[in-house]
Model the fold of this input.
Amino acid sequence: MLYEPEIETLPWSEQRRHDDPLYREQIRYLFAQSRFFCEKLKASGFETPESVGGLDEIGNLPLTEKDELRRSRSEADPIGSHLAAPLDDVVRIFSTSGTTGIPSYIPLTAGDLDNWIRTSCRSYGASGLVPRQRIVTTYNAGPFVAGAALDAFPRLGLCHIPVGTGNTERLLAAIKLLKPQVMACTPSYALHLAEIGQARGLNLQDSSFERIMVAGEPGGGEPAMREKLEDAWNAQVTEAMGIGDISVSLWGECEEQQGMHFSGRGFVHFELIDPDTGEQVPISNGARGELVLTHLRHRGAPLLRFRTRDHVVIWTEPCRCGRTAPRVRCIGRTDDMLIVRGVNVFPSAIREVVNRFAPAVGGVVSVRPSAKGVKQSPPLKVVVELAEDAAPSDDLRNRIENDIRATLVVTTAVHLVPPGTLPRSEYKSKLLDFSEAKEALGD
Ligand SMILES: [Zn+2]
Done:
């Protein structure tokens, strides 16, 4: 379903012409309302909104790191100095599920919230949701930005059945009794649930599900993981990706399953950068880089050139669904990246190679660095669960190690373990496990 066809099918080449005046207005707003960006831009030599110019010149502006926003928070300024709207105009404050000290708050005005819901409607509409379907969700979304995505379901005319996280029995009962056509969850949980169902002898392939929409972590786009989920549930799997500080469900995959379309047209501008140099990477078919996002008409706490730390590959060639916005797939997060003898490697990329060995392997993988921090010396330990009934063999282990080396140029030590050995998660999987790490390596 095209939720806003006139926007979603507009030729992509015309998008900048629409966005440029919005961007200039957003810059004027930031100079007038955002202490954080007013100071930051002036410190970089931009004294006035006019000196900043338009979207063609955005690459000249400084990037914004999450840590800078964090440092701008204090007890007197709990949201941070990037708060740009009077609190009286803020209708919702989300928190991020961050792991460090002071929570990070994300304030939205009524207009901001509506734009987020429209973005989510486009994103979930792309994944094939249609009115009157029932959708069961397993996110504990209350305090978190995913809550705004859930607001999209009634607007799309769906019946939403929230069961929350951590209650597999309630979920299985809802599936059995209410027969939802759609489930939304993390890919780890979809996999975990399939294992539970199979262990109990439930016939998941005959469940009412037509589609499973995954989000919250990379994985749902990895071909082997997707195939496994689709086989287990006999349902189409599509993924979505949001960025808490910018927008929920900013990217949503269509039924062609060739990556997630950009769904924030007119609300957000995206760029790709080289994560090492910070230089812009031209948007072209197959380009790779870190996503950098800029609000175009945000009021609560708009951000300029925000580094997402998500590394993506982008496709710009036309999609058969008719949506003209480019598509991405997340390759991994900077926060998870390891450097093994000078080579950058994402744990999710290792999992993707390992899962090519299905059905011998079960799909659950744990990367166990031996040193604290990013730098590692080879071989990198990788624990791989075997599938039910598969026997460990040196041959399989060698083939996996060779395939990882050939694909990712990284030497690993693969340990094959029986199914069910690694911990399961009802939320995000712990693909990278530092519990065996000793001292950090020196330079
Ligand atoms: Zn499409």
Observations:
- The radius of gyration is 22 Å.
- The longest helix spans residues 15-33.
- Residues 254, 256, 261, 319, 321, 323 surround zinc ion (CB under 6 Å).
